[in-house]
Amino acid sequence: MLRVLLFLVPLALAIYALVDCISSDDEDVRHLPKLLWIALIVLAPLLGALAWILVGRRRRTPSGGRGSVQWVAPDDNPEFLRSLGDGARRDDDEARRAESAQDRELLENWEEDLRRREERLKDSSPNDSDDDNPAGGPDRP
Which of 5, 16, 44, 49 has the highest CB neighbour count under 10 A? Predict the structure, then answer.
């Protein structure tokens, strides 16, 4: 098993380095031209792959290095949200406005009903100066 790993690990490393070198932009390649890096990786797989990984390519930082694009989740991306379809969004906005108007009307009716009930309770409540019933509730026989 160890013999297989001693063969597979350098091979996988060389394949990774070769694919990475071929797919990298020319301005990201450092120290040697891109074709020489490819030749070095093919002719000396272990040494060429390690050299490419360590010094051959300019690595971009994930925080937005030169020319890199920061990934944004779809629900945080305003461009994506705009592209979802204006027609469907307009229908949703109209439905939301109508529902909001109905909710406002219902709330106003509830508040008005509550005010009427409070007024009725104030009008029908006994005197607050009644010492027999300190809680203000109806008298019990």
Answer: 49
